[in-house]
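Re-run with default settings, no changes from the original entry. Doing this only to confirm the output is reproducible before filing.
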Amino acid sequence: MFLFHTTKSKRASVTLSEHQLREIFMQFDEDHDNVLSKEEVRKAFTYLGSRIPEFRTLRGFNHADANGNGQIEFGDELDKLVKYAFKLGYTVM
C-alpha cells in the first residue's frame, strides 16, 4: 500500500489534490469490496492527520452516503466524500 506522508504543520507543504485524496480513501478499502465502511473512513481521516477523525467521518457520511446504507460506495458517493475532504485542506510534505 503506497501512502503519502501527511501533516498539518507550518513547514512548507502542498495541499493534496482530489485525485490524491481519492487514492488515499481507496487504499483504506481493506476488504477490497469497493465500499468504504465507517471504520475504513475513520482510519483514512486519522491517516490524513485529522484531529477529530470520528467527527470528520460522521460529516463525511452526511455529505456522501446518498442512500443511507452506512457505506460509501465507489463512484458518486466516493466523489462526494473526496470533495468534502478536499475542502478541509489536507496537506503533504
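The first helix runs from residue 18 to 27. The two ends are 18 Å apart (CA to CA).
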